[in-house]
């Protein structure tokens, strides 16, 4: 991001901007997933209050990433050929499209309207973060070290949730099994 501010973007500034926006969106998605473990470890409820804002920031940066891709790289034409020739774009599209209903239902009014279905819907963030990671790892040409680190972080965060709540929590729209004691 610093290279954008200083104007040192190299020979393909559009590519640099698009990648920086996508990485920022991905990092914000990971930060969003970090809020629940932080709340559990510190017992401070403020982490959860920040979670929605981080998710909306992730969606905002993802929108900017998609728009910059269409403007600087693709040129707003021949979308179908791009999808069929570059499978990493399919994974990125899944990651982005899954975020749309999450952003649209992030208001308190929608939380009330959807009730318990709101939580199950918002489990789609797990699908989005995994698809975003696949998007990044597939497009990497040679240096995949950074994306492997992100992959380990995402896997660790998902493992924590599964360990605390159960593996079903990672699957969107599945009702939690309540044991009667």
TrEMBL record:
Q: Which UniProt keywords apply?
A: Cell membrane, Electron transport, Flavoprotein, FMN, Heme, Iron, Membrane, Metal-binding, Transmembrane, Transmembrane helix, Transport
- Which cofactors are required for activity? FMN; heme b
Subcellular location(s) of the protein: Cell membrane; Membrane
Q: Where is the Ferric oxidoreductase domain?
A: 21-131
The signal peptide annotation in the UniProt record is none
Output the InterPro entries linked to this UniProt entry: Fe3_Rdtase_TM_dom (IPR013130), MsrQ-like (IPR022837)
For membrane topology, the record states:
Multi-pass membrane protein
Query: Which parts pass through the membrane?
Result: 20-41, 53-74, 86-104, 124-141, 147-171
Explain how, and how many, cofactor molecules are bound.
Answer: Binds 1 FMN per subunit. Binds 1 heme b (iron(II)-protoporphyrin IX) group per subunit.
- Major subcellular location class: membrane
Binding partners and assembly: Heterodimer of a catalytic subunit (MsrP) and a heme-binding subunit (MsrQ).
Family from the record = Belongs to the MsrQ family.
Function summary? Part of the MsrPQ system that repairs oxidized periplasmic proteins containing methionine sulfoxide residues (Met-O), using respiratory chain electrons. Thus protects these proteins from oxidative-stress damage caused by reactive species of oxygen and chlorine generated by the host defense mechanisms. MsrPQ is essential for the maintenance of envelope integrity under bleach stress, rescuing a wide series of structurally unrelated periplasmic proteins from methionine oxidation.
Q: What is this protein called?
A: Protein-methionine-sulfoxide reductase heme-binding subunit MsrQ
Upper lineage ranks?
Bacteria, Pseudomonadati, Pseudomonadota, Gammaproteobacteria, Pseudomonadales
Q: Tell me the name of the encoding gene.
A: msrQ
